[in-house]
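In this notebook, the sequence line spells out the residues, with the fold written below as integer tokens. This is how one looks.
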Amino acid sequence: METARIPNHVAIIVDGNRRWARQRGMFVSLGHKAGFDRLKEITRYALSERGVKVLSLYVFSTENFARDAKEVGYLMDLFANNFKSIATEMNERDCQVLFSGRREGLQKRVCDAMDYMMDLTKDNKSGIVNFCLNYGGHAELTDAMRAIAGEVKAGQLEPDAIDEQTIQHHLYRDLPPVDFLIRTSGEQRISNFLLWQAAYAEFYFTPVLFPDFTKAEFDAALAEYARRDRRMGGDTKKK
């Protein structure tokens, strides 16, 4: 696979942990644990071995709070207790850790773990892993519009000066656009994920449940991306 055909920004909708556990007669919590272990492996592989520069991971949506309280509690425990191990490894590999989403509703210890990771890795330059936690695309755009409206009201920004870059700079994170969006588990929708950033992304839907989304599966996805002709609204075909 040519290095030039590796996407700069890959986004993954982490899906299928619960189904993976139920198919095996396991508690749902064990599916989430298996998914988290896989997430650490794929994060390491994508950034350190495959040359991806930005990896965004949809690990918990704003809508996921509607799930059973015990399941949500287990996920919060998983995040708080395991995020720091990822931070240590990403720091050793000179990668920055970011979080996108609303902090409201998250337990303090989860927020403390997030802050620790971001502070530890803030000066790293070799890559970025962006965890989308308590994230929703509609919420992100709503929060961006509120921030812009506040600047207009305060006289800091003229309405006529608002353009696409203004909106981009007011998103949770000012990251490059998504080149390649992967969703595991067979569902074929983007579920309110990175709506602005994925405007011209290539989509890849695989029936593989996330705990089974191995490095080989990730390579298969990258191979498919390399075969795509990204026209970005234009025409790259030779006349």
